[in-house]
């Protein structure tokens, strides 16, 4: 609550600059955002709540995740040589920390969330993912005979892509099912909590991986 809104609340009045209902982005405004192409843009209401982002602004939100994932993937082989498969466990813990930070940001920063506010949590989540995926792929392909390496890598990539599609579909469907009744903040929080539970399961299962070096 802003200082102005607090003063109106103390006086028992309604702040005219802070409407109780925040209108959403109309299809026409959404079309304008989509047509701006490479120019970052967002739509705000009278309370400076972000109601919608253009594709570039939304994409910039994921840049920290991409950079962290790339860096962790490049460092993965050296870390495996030193710490073995426990890198997967550490990666799961780091990813869980990132999701937890996103939940805290969502709880305390809603609805004023932008790329900057989400960057720390998104960065940690990407770092954790980068520590897990390359090691898991190496582990899965380590016992595949050399003459079947192509088939083995194809199976791994197909499994990975199927899991990614299934995860997006499941969590996206959960969000869309909850948003009309619980609101977007609670819907996002619920989807993140489900993801956090799956990460915790991954961490527990990673403890059973062979300590490869």
Quick structural overview:
The protein has helices at 3-10, 27-35, 55-61, 63-83, 86-109, 115-141, 149-182, 184-206, and strands at residues 42-44, 50-53.
Could you describe the 3D structure shown?
Helix 4 runs parallel beside helix 6 and helix 7 (149-182) runs antiparallel to helix 8. This protein has 213 residues and is mainly α. The protein has two domains: 3-58, no CATH class; 62-206, Growth Hormone, Chain: A (Up-down Bundle), CATH 1.20.1250. A hairpin with a 5-residue loop joins strand 1 and strand 2 (50-53). The chain has a two-stranded antiparallel ribbon. The model has no long low-confidence stretch (mean pLDDT 79). It has helices at residues 3-10, 27-35, 55-61, 63-83, 86-109, 115-141, 149-182, 184-206; strands at residues 42-44, 50-53.
